[in-house]
Amino acid sequence: MRVLVAPDKFAGTLTAVEAAEAIATGWRRRAPEDVLDLAPLSDGGPGFVDVLHAALGGDLLAVTVPGPHGAPTPATVLLVEGAAYVESAQACGLHLTGRQGAEAAGTAGVGHLLRAAVAAGARRIVVGLGGSGTNDGGAGLLSALGASADVRLDAGPLPLVDVTHVDLAPARALLDGVELVAASDVDATLTGLFGATRTFGPQKGIAEERLPVLDALLEQLAVAVDRRLALEKGAGAAGGLGFALLALGARREPGIGLVADAVGLAARAAAADLVLTGEGAFDFSSRTGKVPAGVAEVAAAALRPCVALAGRVDVGAREMRALGVESAYGMVDVVGEKRSFADPAGSLADLAERVARSWSS
């Protein structure tokens, strides 16, 4: 059989590259004659630059930027034929905040990455959004690009309580002539019940009673900048970084679609007999914008079955098939939760070996 292995990262345990290799290791133990094509993916979150570098080549520009709490943080910009690819999580990711201090965390580092891309001569900048530990509506990014306001924009969301005016002219001038693309993994708006704060705030360590307060702060920023943009899909991506990029004229694209095109996923799926995908938690959030949904869509277009391997599976058969996934298997169900976290690569390999028994002809 020809098997395409196209997983996302398993958040907190395995990168997409490591996940693909673990699946391949287990699969080969059961079906050594099968031909495996490894295509690790990203939806715009952590791993975005590494995946694209492997697929597109290009040069990695090393830079040091302010982290979410101001500490010097190493990051990279991928430069490919006049285009630059930036991974916002490198400058403001959850791994940098430790799921703490989101109310004081900022996104200035992402703005510095854009500055580095412009200085390197990029005429197109693609910003991968996802995995952020911040919730400032992109105010820090705007400040780093030269925007000003009647409050500080680079000190997290709390100062936004008094914001009434934001001058974006300097930031827009800096990006004049640059095509800006926001590659997001979610459709969330900036504010409201399904906005950045209420949807993703808890996983960033924001207490339940603080969610309405921080949502109101982002609403204040939206009124000062452009209330209509706050309602756009993707405005709430990465704690509102999507909103800031839209305000600077960015075009929003689903991150998985952009990466899938870059790695030639459609042609590779058509050449396979079976498509495997996966992520840490295969649940209801996998329905839109995430790697498994994107891979399943590509597999369906190629008339190939798609199977998901995950850390845990929290959807039923009906929901799974609505996503275009034939079957889904969880590491926790096979080896238990303790071993899944203690040895994620080995556990995923064991799961893949078991799945191969059912799916390799």
Automatic annotation (TrEMBL):
- Using the record, list the residue span of the signal peptide; answer none if the entry has no such feature: none
Cited InterPro entries: Glyc_kinase_flavodox-like_fold, Glycerate_kinase, Glycerate_kinase_RE-like, Glycerate_kinase_sf
Which ranges does the record mark as transmembrane?
Answer: none
Q: Which GO terms describe its molecular function?
A: glycerate kinase activity
Keyword annotations: Kinase, Transferase
GO terms of biological process kind: organic acid phosphorylation
Q: Which Gene3D superfamilies match?
A: Glycerate kinase, domain 1, Glycerate kinase, domain 2
Keyword Ubl conjugation in record = no
The entry's family comment says:
Belongs to the glycerate kinase type-1 family.
UniProt name for this protein: Glycerate kinase
Species source reads Nocardioides bruguierae
